[in-house]
Specification:
homodimer, six-stranded parallel β-sheet, two-stranded antiparallel sheet, about 25% strand
């Protein structure tokens, strides 16, 4: 398939690129992800996923110890093992997807969401005519369509079986090598975009201060959390 | 019950205090937690829990979309809703409990673990003679015992039903009001203890630099992540 052009917009600094898989219910988003994730894995990329759920959910298995902790009122419950880590947290509002990516997906090459169709994320619609008479109303955040029928004159189109081609498209447009040096800044939970000068200044100034501490001479990765309740 | 004295050791800076509930299998750790968590909740404290598991585990429910993402090879899978957030992550080694607490429990008043009996955490043993002939071999990290029988001459003892008394003990010895100003520092995944001078210096210097950025004048909470791959 010839590579179609598309207008991927540049976003403010994010630790990992994010693309949203959207589509009407039962359009095949999860089924596509089940093929796309291993394909990106074969190409050597670490993929994380975020499922957006608008209702109350239970992720844990009833009867397990962690489930019992949560039922008893624990606000955060973690299950930690040598191969996996699970953390379930009570929240008071829907988490902005940018915050989730910054907090939990910093070491991923690509994050793919299921849902978030009303966000500003770049979107790929999954559509099957067999399941719905009409696709979603597209806007200028749409970057491609995966479908059993051609629904856009302008957007790149992939058939439902063109998983390798879709993976190559994501690599080309979304996965870029991570910056060798980088800094992310969250202030009161909101990501603050930094231009190159401010980013380098902060990164080098803080790294220099940390380097002056005992046993912190060659820090490759620094995470700092500050609380200023009163000044 | 008269309040027994015990020798709680001071630990390096941690965002939240941690205590480990230990005991032989089937000694009643989870059952005690199910009563202790709501009791601490009634006293107004936010409790988080960590369950240590030495084998492979599955936290999600088979067949769910997030479970399918993980099966397909996603390294990190999140499920986000307005009331809850779940994150499941593939790891390559057992996570140090200090790192889990720093990363995921910074806003909790107390973290209680189930397990980690070989860690340096302060420990409370749960023991029922009905279940086991002998308690665990205690060391100097033991701070109390909850049991149907008195097993220590020196450690504070609580009966299995003395949940209110145990909660009061935890509040008195572990839950302290959070510092009004604080800073935590992780370097290459390891918490770096900071004395008061270094902590205040770093916190004020970084807060000052951030305050000079646009729209960041009154940051109450600052989180910074730095990657220095090459210098």
């Amino acid at each position: 398939m010839p590579e179609p052009q598309c207008n991927i917009r540049h976003h403010e600094f994010r630790p990992s690129p994010v693309v949203a898989l959207v589509g009407r219910p039962n359009s095949g988003k999860t089924t596509l992800l089940e093929q796309l994730i291993p394909e990106l894995g074969r190409l050597g990329y670490r993929v994380g996923t975020i499922k957006h759920h608008v209702h109350r959910f239970e992720m844990d298995r009833p009867g397990k110890d962690t489930w019992r902790h949560k039922q008893a009122g624990a606000r955060v419950v973690a299950l930690s093992s040598p191969t996996g880590l699970g953390v379930i947290r009570e929240v008071e509002r829907d988490s902005p997807v940018e915050e989730l990516v910054a907090r939990y997906f910093a070491d991923m090459d690509l994050v793919i969401t299921e849902g978030y169709k009303r966000s500003a994320l770049p979107k790929i619609e999954v559509y099957r005519r067999a399941a719905h008479p009409e696709p979603l109303p597209a806007d200028d955040t749409w970057v491609a369509v995966v479908s059993d029928t051609r629904i856009s004159e302008t957007l790149p189109h992939f058939d439902l079986v063109e998983v390798k081609e879709l993976a190559a498209f994501l690599v080309r447009h979304f996965i870029t090598p991570p910056p060798e040096n980088g800094i992310s800044l969250l202030v009161d939970g909101v990501a603050v975009p930094l231009n190159q000068f401010a980013g380098n200044f902060l990164r080098q100034a803080i790294s220099g201060m940390v380097a002056s501490l005992k046993n912190c001479g060659n820090a490759r990765e620094i995470t700092i959390h500050i609380r200023n309740e009163q000044e």
